[in-house]
Structure formats: structure tokens, C-alpha cells
Amino acid sequence: MRHFSVVIFVEICSDPSSGEAEERADGDQSDGGGAKYKGTQMREEKLAEMIEKKVKEARQVCEGDARSDECKVAWDEVEEVSQAKADLRIKLNRDQDPLTSFCEENPETDECRIYED
Fold it and tell me: Where are the domains of the chain?
């Protein structure tokens, strides 16, 4: 009989600013695709706020000359943050634990090793 042990990486489930591990935001119930963890929910909210901020900045930068390099860079930043939020939504729609998603992207890390006894 084989026994498997998994090293659990708590830091990926933490909000770096608080230093606390993520807790379920709404218990174990999931209607498929929502943020199940407080830290994930906070990241989604921060990305939404950042998108709004970057759009305002881009509009201000582009007021004088919409074809300037600065304007293009500002809108590129909006696009990058929007893509980050879209990527987060895709991960949330998989309805997986954050550790599972992390290990799919980083299988070589110590946190994702599986040991056989």
C-alpha cells in the first residue's frame, strides 16, 4: 500500500499585507466561480480598484495628445491590469483550492512535491 504526503504551502493562501492565512469567505458553499477565500476576494476587489485608477490616469494622460507614447503606455497598463483580473476569474471558475492552481503553475516547488512512503 502506498501512502502519499503533501507539503502544504500556507503562504500562497495568505494576504501579504496582513500575514494571516486565507479563510473561507462564505463557507464551503460555492455556486461555481465566485471568490471562496477572503484573500482571493480581496485580490479581486483590489484589481477592480486598480483598473478604475489606471483608466482615470490614462484619460488624464491622453487629454492633450491621444497619440502620444505616454498615452499608449497608460492604456497598456489598463490592459495589463484588466488581463490580470481576467486571469484571476478564470482560476476562480475552475473551482479549485488556491494551492492546486499554484502547483499546476509551479510543480517544481517544494510546496507541491508529493512524497511516497
Answer: 4-116
